[in-house]
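Researcher: Re-running this chain for the archive, since the previous output was lost when a drive failed. Same request as before.
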Amino acid sequence: MSIDTAAPAAQSRQPVLYLSHGAPPLADDELWTAQLAAWSAKLNRPSSILVVSAHWEEAPLAVSATRTVPLFYDFWGFPQRYYDVTYAAPGAPDLASSVSKLLRSPGQAVHENAERGLDHGAYVPLVEMFPDADIPVLQLSMPTLEPTHLLELGRKLAPLRDENVLIIGSGFTTHNLSAIDFSLGMHQAAPQWSAEFDAWAAEMMQHRDVDALLSFLDRAPAGHLAHPRTEHFAPLFVSLGATLDDTGKTESVIEGFWGGLSKRSWQLD
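Model: Regenerated structure tokens:
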């Protein structure tokens, strides 16, 4: 009998994701749920997950509860079944400590919002990607929507990738609910403004043109129409910042439209 004394292979650093998270009815879309499940199946299993969601703006910086608490159903007017969804992922106190150390600055600490559960920008996609809810998950607030600030925030978080942490920016590549006629269904043709912005974003991300992306409101076609408020594009800048010093590939993993909105989602290696 021989004993293998070789050291285990080093854990490769985790990629960073930016995904369009949809709304609670995403769970009814067989195509999108299958796309999310196939995506996560190709990832190395992370030790924990850090989510920056379009649905949590809070300054100073805050992390969500570091223990399992009920989900935050931050939506209204939906059928009851969407409020019955659960996702009891373990809390991530160790990750919260690491985040705090990376982001603390003189006179400012990262505080814990002890009762805030995962919002739908976090749990809706995670239910599809990691349905066993057995990976610790932590949310981090966006203290501002200013792109360069969020880019720097992501850059500071980059070392977490070497600790097997999966960083996810969760938004929507186009997001103007008032300009969509949902009576046409979730598989309606994309309006021109949504299609044009989606194509521009795909090209800028392919070339990793950070300068253009930072100025998306003015440089993208229909920028202000695609994002009358920018909170759903803002998490992309955290994801970009966490890969700012990389020369790896950018892959558009999910494409297409849902309710006329671009569900394009990227993996940054």
